[in-house]
Specification:
Elements lengths: L1 H24 L4 H4 L20 E6 L1 H5 L3 H11 L2 E9 L2 H7 L9 H8 L3 E8 L3 H9 L12 H5 L8 E3 L3 H11 L13 H4 L3
Antiparallel strand pairs: 1-3, 1-4, 2-3
This protein binds inosine-5'-diphosphate and magnesium ion.
Length: about 200
Amino acid sequence: MLRCIIKKILQHSYVGEQGTSKGLLSAFPTALLGEHRAAVGHRSKSSLPEVRERTLIAVKPDGVHRRLVGQIIQRFEQRGFKLVGLKMLQVSEDLLSQHYIELRTKPFYPRLQQYMTSGPVVVMVWEGHKVVQTSRVMVGHTNPAEASAGTVRGDFSFHVSRNVVHASDSLEGAQREIQLWFKGRELLNWDCCDQSNTCDV
Ligand code: IDP
Ligand code: MG
């Protein structure tokens, strides 16, 4: 009986709280939140913008060929981030030129394009507190010769032309890249069972 009453109170307060969180979320970029709101349990802590930051991570063709996809995913899972989108694709020259819009005039761009379109990439969206900044640290310096041991590039590569992985470099960059690579319906909002053990925001 008592459980039944508590359940009713929670159901009631859920309606009110959902209204509040919706108001908070409306100020946050849609691409970082994804379009699909979880139908149930959306009042959880993961609704808060600060733990719902998202970034784009891609395992480049050299990483896929070298069977590093699993190890790279493992690092992000181990850190506590949440996977909200994942797919494998062969990148077109058009998509790549939009992705690397600032690099198109660089002398190395033709070779970069050849490399990035030479085989499949595995592209992902990871979510969590300060995930953009943290994943840049996890990925390491652009030039693997300068990347610290313990970073993906520092552990799996030695030359800038084959540096295994991409990570968005800013919040704005992440938002732009997520929209470029993923349709809204390909990103999922879901509540991870361990989230109260990884963050208390
Ligand atoms: P980032 O991947 O660490 O964000 P960016 O400067 O955005 O580094 O460069 C994008 C990608 O272009 C690099 O990851 C690397 O694959 C490639 N790249 C950057 N600089 C060079 C270079 O000097 N030679 C060859 N490839 C380069
Ligand atoms: Mg970059």
